[in-house]
Amino acid sequence: MKYEVVYIKADYEPWWMFEDWEQKIQSRKAFETAQEALEYLRELNNEFGSKYKYREERKDCFFAYWTDNERIFCEGCDEDLQIFHGVVSLMDGKPASLMMMNNSNI
Hints:
Elements: E1 3-10, E2 25-31, H1 34-51, E3 54-58, E4 62-66, E5 71-74, E6 79-82, E7 84-91, E8 94-95
Antiparallel strand pairs: 1-2, 1-7, 3-4, 4-7, 5-6, 7-8
């Protein structure tokens, strides 16, 4: 198994994983074990949690962080769009919860 934790910055929440989501990646780290990936995921979530006012989580593998004042103007839609900082945990390239794993799976 391949375990990864990915940080994306986009004008949409990470769980949407639109076609271009990989172009929005700011960092991508691979790990040998689920435990190592989970430790890094927790570190990253703690860091983002202290930086950003809002947080939302989906399926224990998608984490979105944002603040009111971080927006970009979208010419095509003629409005300001919210910027989201997304953290995603992946197993073999697919979103998966590392938190659901117990020691017998690692």
